[in-house]
Amino acid sequence: MERCGTGWNEVTKYFRAGMPLRKHRQRFRKHGNCFSAVEAVDWLHELLRNNRNFGPEVTRQQTVQLLRKFLKNHVIEDIKGRWGSENLDDNNNLFRFPSTSPVKTLQRRSLLKENTENIPKEEGSLFKLPHFSRRTPKKHELLHTLENIENTKSEIMEEDKENLHRKKISQEEIEEIWRNIILIHLQTILGLPSLEEVLHSAQVIPQYVMYNMTNTSKHGVVVLQNKSEDLPHWVLSAMKCLAYWPRSNDMSQPTYTGFERDVFRTVADYFLNLPEPLLTFEYYELFVNILDFLRPHLERVAIEALQICCLLLPPPNRRKLQLLMRMISRISQNVDMPRLHDAVGTRSLMIQTFSRCVLCCAEEVDLDELLATRLVSFLMDHQQDIFKVPTYLQVAVQDHIESLKTAQFQYPGEEISAILPTYSYCRRITPQEFDEQKVSTSQAAVAELLENIIRDKSLSLKDKKKKLKRFQKEYPLIYQNRFPTTESEAILFENKPTIKQPMLSLKKPKFRSVRYY
């Protein structure tokens, strides 16, 4: 009886963990996250046949009987939520898993792929039921198991209460996972041998990161729950007036010559009188280190690094910075905006005015203004990309949490650490080694960009040739390594080569185009 109860529990767990769910249509209605009876029979039958405790002699009818017991004991229910009977046949009727069950739901894709062809058949495979007796039972014992499962239901529920308690991951562990994921990705993007001189783990506050990623408006701007931390209403109104000039200007209000200059000074005075820069004194070294990547061929690296770094900011700072960058970007591109200064162009005025309120050191540094100017210029030009929420971080965190739950299930008696073991500070290297690694990393990133252009099936042949030609002019050595001969180009286009090798690798001066956001 003990073996019977444990076997029922194990089979049920594997079934709930691995049974593929998808959308089905029945009687002109769509039903999500469900499966048909015949799909369940196919999947469970394959599982039992490839398990050494049952073997290939398990019949399809025996599998149907097991599924009927699942329905009777509310392991599954029909699409209308009905259960308690054994009304299940090998047909296309739809079933689903209930929200509550006699067993704990496992993470679905961590134990079994949807394709049953990948089920391992060796003795040590993932799907052997470890608590079964090592003696292979006779095949009629499966039916005997099905007839006695009701007697073990209370024992199973007690066991799963313990499992539920064991598998719960605390909020502190989740926050530590976030911290480690942030550090790993940032160090990888920057290609630094260590982050210890620019960012300490204590400076990564997971609550800020999670808030900045989840509490946003439809435009991606952080929304603050505490309105006292937000920009004053009059500042927001003035910023909106300038950002959408002249459309947002309420013509019912009296305007005068120089009105827009006064509004601009109002906004500037507010930001220049903040107690500390928007990027904070604490993160000064971090953002200064990113300045090394503000070069054309490392633009993507800089954007990805700034995406993560701006997530570290307190939510009020991130919101103010994002709104400020949106405003000055729009103003600098607005051809209808009157001159805001007699001697200085609009773009230069935006950068000179706000650079110090974005980045500066707690102790005055001679190069502060130059560093801040470069960073603000880049933030302004790429603000849409930089303030996008990097969803891959959420995926990485969720994947690690699921792997922890899987490990806890597989090794129930062991203490599983939530800390990522892969993150550690590396040894200190010489400046020469660092420069070599940085060049190697950047070249790999550029080479990957070339491969993306080659693989992009959405590009027309004409556009692909145009992009490749531009790439060839910018990075002739990397291009030549990828296409050492004109014949290799011909293979790509299945035609005679049309991209000629440049005689000189001299670069033409670049002119930044005006982009509208």
TrEMBL record:
What UniProt keywords apply to this chain's record, in alphabetical order?
GTPase activation
Does Cell membrane appear among the keywords? no
This protein's record includes keyword Aminoacyl-tRNA synthetase: no
Q: Rho-GAP domain location, by residue?
A: 193-387
One example GO MF annotation:
GTPase activator activity
Q: Which GO terms describe its biological process?
A: intracellular signal transduction; negative regulation of DNA-templated transcription
Can you supply one Gene Ontology CC term for this chain's record? transcription repressor complex
Q: Determine the domain of life of the protein's source.
A: Eukaryota
Cited Gene3D superfamilies:
Rho GTPase activation protein, Winged helix-like DNA-binding domain superfamily/Winged helix DNA-binding domain
In its UniProt entry, what is this protein called? DEP domain-containing protein 1B
Q: Which organism is it from?
A: Chelonoidis abingdonii (Abingdon island giant tortoise)
Top-level taxonomy: Eukaryota, Metazoa, Chordata, Craniata, Vertebrata
